[in-house]
Amino acid sequence: MALKAILFDVDGTLAETEEVHRQSFNAAFRAAGLPWHWSRDLYRELLAVTGGKERIQHFRAGLIDPPGCDVAALHRAKTECYTALVAAGAVALRPGIARLLAEARVQGVRLAIATTTTPANVAALLAAALGPEGPALFEVMVAGDAVPRKKPAPDVYRAVLEAMGLDPAGCIAIEDSRNGVLSARRAGLPVLATPGLYTGDDDLRHAVAVLSDLGEPGAPYRHLGGVGAGEGWVTVEALGRWVEDGGGP
Predict the structure, then answer these.
(1) Residues with Cβ < 8 Å from 72, sequence gap 6 or more?
(2) Helix, strand, coil shares of the chain as percentages rounded to 5?
(3) Per annotation, catalytic residue among 9, 155, 202, 213
(4) pTM of this prediction?
């Protein structure tokens, strides 16, 4: 099957961003005078809640005597910290991402982003990692609060497909987490999963392939499940074959 489009998640998929997000949350808490600190173990648990504001609200709701705070303002401060760190070079693209983007562009495969993070976070990452032309590589970006429900609901992927005038046939999503995989599958998309620092223990059984990353010539991915064993690095041609193996939702 000829591949029509690749729909990318951002955090943990395009780049290993979650640790920088965690550091930015903690910096915002300190700046606001809040006695909160999210450890790596706690943050791993909190990632089950998609969306930064939602994550703060969930954490605060679990406290016995939560201090008053403006969640929206706190999240804005966190975003400012995160985008500054990304602009300073704190985050790099995961292996194979830049190569696959370039290959897709040459072969006329359409590219889009489906994420729960904010547009400012996405723009900062793309500009820092791919240069000023980075955001223009993606035809459509649906991010943050643009849809009623965040992942694992299918809303963000359905919105991207609608904006591109596509149905799921011939398209594939690339994700790193259980919530992301479920979101894409519920929208009818096959999914390639590349778990990251905080999602290595996620249940990714619904992905058509689970790989350590997209791989590079000379630095092949580790095959963790599904199709793709022995191939080494993800190509547009391989994704076209894997789409056929992806089945329905």
Answers:
(1) 53
(2) 45, 15, 45
(3) 9
(4) 0.91
CA distance 113 to 134: 12
Question: Has 9 been annotated as catalytic?
Answer: yes
The Cα angle at residue 247 between residues 246 and 249, in degrees rounded to 5: 105
pLDDT at 98: 95
Q: Is 213 a catalytic residue?
A: no
**10-residue mean pLDDT series, the chain (249 residues):** 92 93 96 95 94 93 88 94 92 95 96 92 90 90 89 97 96 97 97 95 96 97 96 96 70
Gap between the Cα atoms of 50 and 113, Å rounded: 16
| Closest by CA position to 155, among listed 247, 51, 52 | 51
Whether omega before 66 lies within 30 degrees of 0, making that bond cis, reads no
Q: Which two tokens stand for residue 85?
A: 């760190």
Q: Give one DSSP letter per residue of 6-60, joined into a string.
A: EEE--BTTTB--HHHHHHHHHHHHHHTT------HHHHHHHTTS-SHHHHHHHHH
- Catalytic hit among 11, 155, 176, 213: 11
Give the three-state DSSP class for 140: strand
